[in-house]
Design brief:
heterodimer; A: MetI-like fold; 2 domains; B: MetI-like fold
Chain lengths: ~300, ~300
């Protein structure tokens, strides 16, 4: 088990290095370097050039690309993500609160997606070919076809504008979280529901389920104790992959609901051409995705004894 | 002897059930209700993409401020937008962008993925190792995030959004095609092609490619709606199509401020995207069920 976890963590090193390379490459495609963009049309020419020289030295922008990469990687490892071109504040200062907000939104959506997705998948499979199954599948199909941004607009229209149950926009108390989390969670639950249903259908036909029934166990016990455990492994894999969808989806949802997360900032930063912020957000989001998948892979050990004993 | 004769006589009457080819496939496909509904949506989408200019009732770019934000009525069945433009005409005209986005994004993703996947699997060794590590790194970025990163480099526009969504979908295609090619290249027909002296490009494009088309079509039907949705989402974020082009995602972002006073301005293009994606998914599901032998026999 320990060997498996160590192997899995070791596999992270080349992936993280690759992510660093990709985000570093973003700099290469930018028309001008971040520092000259920062001081464009600011102060007197002499002052600007002096400031630019200092900044370039600090971030190694006057060095060849391979040295720049080491500067970049070193700064990232120290937690220095650069200075925002627009606000001239350290990028991490701009990001830290927003990152927490995005994690809150993603976490709440994940809980909704898991409860609704797995729940409806189990019900659909157990009541296969009944009206419940048909309804579950129809809702699932609607879910994967519904654009998240349109669903968000509908939710705002119904629950915030017409019924006035929740606030329309912004980031305040827990009430502000309801609609965005529902939006993202319900959309992501559609895929999860489909996978759970098809896996559950396979599992319900297995010999050990027949044995459990033959022993006289009650149906809830058969489903929840014997079937669900075996459904969870592929479902957890999908949940890991869906974190990517949730993180990406959060970018759109945050814009719709004015939720102050990194996604909303990323979209603004792209319009402002604030590349240091964009670069940092892409790095942090990809890093989070990779780490979450590591956690998912490690949970396999606890879910699948075959890994533990191998 | 008599038994053998009887068997010989009976043999011609026992015809194997033919379960391949378009004559078997098309009736099987369109027997399904989802293929009928989804297929109709796709055909209508293609029809309007080609002929919308001839059938739309109003000019989709014609600004008439005196009838701005008119609710749906007989003259304007979907109402008018904040500049008095007829929404039905704009939506029908916008089908061309949806089709273009779908084709270009899928073309870039599938073409790029095909080249990488096929080359990696066919040549193997260090080519395969290098290509797959590159794919692993690209896959460590969520799809929409990778699209955003590429748009950040290229700048916001319809073409750049399509290129971004296309490039971001390459890793998914590449990994899948590599898997198909790896199993296909061990088949005897590839050995036979090599034995008769076919060169590498002939084996790749004339022998292996036709044999992996069926699973590829299944994957494309799964990815196509996702590509259209991503490009629409980029437009909705203001990073794709720019006004005044009537692309559905862009139409929604421009009208979002009127949710409370004129909801039809937002719901009409939103519903259009939803119906088209639903149609594509329904048709894709039916196609998968018909083409995939595992699903077919379930």
């Amino acid at each position: 088990m320990t060997a498996y976890i160590i192997r899995r963590i070791a596999f992270l090193i080349p992936v993280c290095l690759g992510i660093l390379c990709v985000t570093f490459l973003l700099q290469a495609f930018i028309p001008a370097d971040a520092v000259s963009m920062m001081y464009q049309g600011q102060a007197t020419r002499q002052q600007a050039e002096e400031a630019m020289r200092i900044m370039r030295e600090k971030y190694g922008l006057d060095k060849p690309w391979y040295i720049r990469f080491f500067y970049y990687a070193g700064n990232v490892l120290r937690g220095d993500l650069g200075i925002s071109i627009r606000t001239r504040r350290p990028v991490w200062e701009e990001l830290k609160d927003r990152y927490v907000n995005t994690m809150i939104l993603t976490g709440a959506s994940l809980v909704i997606a898991v409860i609704v997705g797995i729940g409806s998948g189990i019900v659909s499979a157990y009541f296969r070919d009944t009206i419940l199954d048909f309804l579950g599948q129809a809702v699932g199909l609607f879910g994967i076809s519904m654009p998240a941004f349109f669903f968000g607009v509908l939710l705002i229209m119904i629950f915030a504008v017409r019924l006035r149950w929740v606030p329309v926009l912004g980031k305040g108390d827990w009430k502000h979280l309801i609609l965005p989390a529902l939006n993202l969670g319900l959309i992501e639950s559609a895929g999860l529901s489909r996978i759970t249903r098809s896996t559950m259908l396979d599992v319900l036909n297995m010999d050990y389920i027949r044995t459990a029934r033959a022993k006289g166990l009650s149906e809830p016990l058969v489903v929840l104790r014997h079937a669900l455990k075996n459904v969870l492994l592929p479902v957890v894999t999908i949940i890991g992959l869906q974190i990517g969808g949730l993180l990406g989806g959060a970018f759109i949802i945050e814009v719709i609901f004015g939720w102050h997360g990194v996604g909303e900032l990323a979209v603004r930063a792209i319009s402002w051409r604030d590349f240091t912020i964009t670069q940092a957000i892409i790095l942090i989001s990809a890093g989070t995705y990779v780490l979450v998948n590591l956690v998912v892979d490690i949970t396999y050990v606890f879910l699948d004894p075959r890994i533990k004993y191998s | 002897m008599e038994t053998a004769n009887q068997l010989n006589m009976q043999t011609p009457s026992v015809q194997p059930v033919r379960r391949t080819g378009p004559r078997w496939f098309l009736p099987q496909l369109f027997k399904k209700r989802s293929a009928q509904i989804g297929g109709s949506v796709v055909v209508l989408l293609l029809f309007f993409a080609l002929f919308a200019s001839y059938v739309i009732p109003y000019d989709p770019f014609d600004v008439q401020t005196e009838i701005r934000l008119t609710p749906p009525n007989l003259e304007h069945p979907f109402g008018t937008d904040e500049l008095g433009r007829d929404l039905l005409s704009r939506i029908l005209y916008g089908t061309r962008y949806t089709v273009m986005i779908g084709l270009i994004v899928t073309g870039i993703g599938c073409g790029g993925g095909f080249l990488i996947g096929l080359t990696a699997a066919y040549w193997g060794h260090w080519v395969d190792m290098l290509a797959m590590r590159l794919i692993d790194i690209m896959l460590s970025f969520p799809y929409i995030l990778l699209s955003l990163a590429i748009v950040a480099i290229l700048g916001p526009s319809l073409v750049n959004a399509m290129v971004a969504a296309g490039i971001a979908s390459i890793p998914g295609y590449a990994r899948l095609i590599r898997g198909f090619v790896l199993s296909a290249k061990e088949e005897e027909y590839v050995l036979a092609a090599r034995a008769i002296g076919s060169n590498d490009s002939r084996i790749m494009f004339r022998t292996i490619l036709p044999n992996i088309m069926s699973p590829m079509v299944i994957f494309i039907t799964y990815r196509l709606p996702l590509s259209v949705l991503t490009a629409a989402a980029l437009s909705f974020l203001g990073l794709g199509t720019q006004p005044p082009l009537p692309e559905w995602g862009a139409m929604m972002v421009n009208s979002r401020t009127f949710i409370g006073s004129a909801p039809w301005v937002v719901t009409a293009p939103g519903l259009a995207i939803f119906v088209v994606i639903l149609g594509m998914n329904l048709f894709g599901n039916a196609l998968r069920d018909t083409l995939d032998p595992y699903q077919r026999d379930r």
